[in-house]
Inverse folding.
């Protein structure tokens, strides 16, 4: 079984997590740029973060044969801070990178006018750089936030097939299905979505344009919940090919639209020359 | 004209064009040619702000781009104006950057910095044959540092890489 986690924040995870993921078949990941749980106050904090998810994380991942790509954006929460909004000026330097496969996470947090503006602006950046877009739907007032996100996407002129609305649930899935956008589901230990509820949604709405992720980050989360979902699918009678479609071919197709996804065997990076991470650094 | 020829022309005309072209070189010129293509783009830069533009590419670059900058530094007309980039690379924990930082341009590093770079390479298990001018520059102080590392390794029941032992013996 091969697993491609299309949304996971590895910068918050340990090297042990990479090891466990690889041992369980998770051999490709996409790390979206998002909030760090702690507010940032300057552009430099963002560019250092982009550096980490473009350089350091692929290097760490490669030690375990995991292919790592990322998405770059100013997240909606920090779009409200004028000190952070300046990061929009430097995004074009990052959106041209080989390992950047989408603009994201963009979208809404509290649905403020600032978020409106930054969301629309970054959809234009996706168009200008020929990249798909990853849209985070808000945790509070999710239904209204999802609808408003779909409106902004439509207005931007970006092709729906190049957009994923993420963190969906039973309540919001149908409205996204009919637009032609992709549907992302984050499987969490307690909240959001569980493997069994995910299986019910796949039964009801089919497997096309469906993405399943762990969205594992610094909070209570589990990088192996994609694997648990694959197991729940198998237990519910889905075939191996259907599981492969949802947990590998779908994310490969979605991010493949960037023209930059390279799933060739993750090169061992510098590991063959001596692996500082395994040794605990120097 | 090929993509690279076009890109080199564009950079020669307007230096800032390199900011979008340099990162895209892997996709456009083919991954196997990425390093050469990036070197060609860097060599097309000129003017007073050369060192600044090169530093900007390094600081905004992913690790492949950073490596390409480091490897091309000896061929660029920047004097010692980019030595700060070597220091940044040597502080990193990516062995490919460490190796690239210890090429011919490392002659601009102070002896103490260069020795730390060599010692870090030994720690990371990098083949010392890839370090530029090692035998000419290695001195008694480096020998003292390597000897200390060997003692620590032996005390822990571990060995020092054979090429580092050989270097130590040559210096003795
Ligand atoms: Zn996220």
């Amino acid at each position: 079984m091969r697993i491609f986690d299309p949304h996971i924040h590895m910068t918050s995870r340990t090297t042990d997590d990479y090891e466990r993921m690889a041992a369980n078949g998770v051999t490709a990941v996409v790390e979206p740029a998002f909030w760090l749980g702690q507010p940032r106050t300057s552009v430099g904090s963002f560019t250092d973060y982009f550096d980490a998810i473009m350089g350091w994380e692929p290097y760490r991942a490669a030690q375990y044969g995991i292919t790592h790509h990322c998405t770059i954006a100013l997240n909606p929460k920090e779009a409200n801070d004028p000190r952070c909004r300046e990061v929009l000026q430097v995004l074009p330097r990052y959106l041209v990178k080989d390992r950047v496969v989408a603009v994201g996470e963009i979208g809404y947090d509290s649905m403020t006018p600032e978020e409106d503006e930054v969301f629309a602006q970054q959809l234009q950046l996706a168009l200008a750089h020929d990249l798909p877009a990853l849209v985070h739907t808000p945790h509070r007032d999710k239904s209204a936030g999802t609808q408003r996100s779909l409106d902004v996407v439509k207005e931007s002129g970006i092709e729906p097939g190049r957009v994923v609305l993420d963190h969906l649930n039973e309540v919001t899935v149908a409205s996204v299905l009919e637009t032609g956008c992709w549907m992302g589901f984050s499987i969490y230990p307690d909240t959001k979505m569980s493997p069994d509820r995910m299986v019910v949604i796949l039964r009801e709405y089919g497997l096309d344009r469906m993405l399943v992720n762990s969205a594992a980050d610094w909070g209570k989360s589990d990088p192996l919940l994609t694997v648990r979902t694959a197991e729940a699918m198998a237990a519910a009678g889905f075939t191996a090919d259907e599981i492969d479609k949802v947990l590998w071919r779908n994310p490969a197709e979605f991010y493949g639209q960037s023209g930059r996804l390279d799933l060739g065997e993750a090169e061992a990076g510098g590991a063959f020359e001596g692996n500082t991470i395994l040794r605990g650094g120097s | 004209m090929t993509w690279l020829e076009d890109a080199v022309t564009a950079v020669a005309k307007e230096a800032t064009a390199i900011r979008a072209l340099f990162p895209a070189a892997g996709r456009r010129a083919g991954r196997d040619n990425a390093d050469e293509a990036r070197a060609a783009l860097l060599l097309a830069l000129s003017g007073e702000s050369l060192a600044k533009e090169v530093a900007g590419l390094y600081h905004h670059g992913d690790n492949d781009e950073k490596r390409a900058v480091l490897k091309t530094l000896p061929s660029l007309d920047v004097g010692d104006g980019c030595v700060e980039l070597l220091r940044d690379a040597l502080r990193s924990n990516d062995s490919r950057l460490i190796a690239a930082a210890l090429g011919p341009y490392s002659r601009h590093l102070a002896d103490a910095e260069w020795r730390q770079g060599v010692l870090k390479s030994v720690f990371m298990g990098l083949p010392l044959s890839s370090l530029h001018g090692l035998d000419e520059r290695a001195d008694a102080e480096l020998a003292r540092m390597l000897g200390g590392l060997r003692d620590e390794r032996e005390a822990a029941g571990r060995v020092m890489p054979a090429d580092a032992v050989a270097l130590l013996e040559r210096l003795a």
About this structure: Chain B has a mean pLDDT of 95. Residues A 7, 9, 32, 34, 105, 215 surround zinc ion (CB under 6 Å). Chain B is about 65% helix and 0% strand.
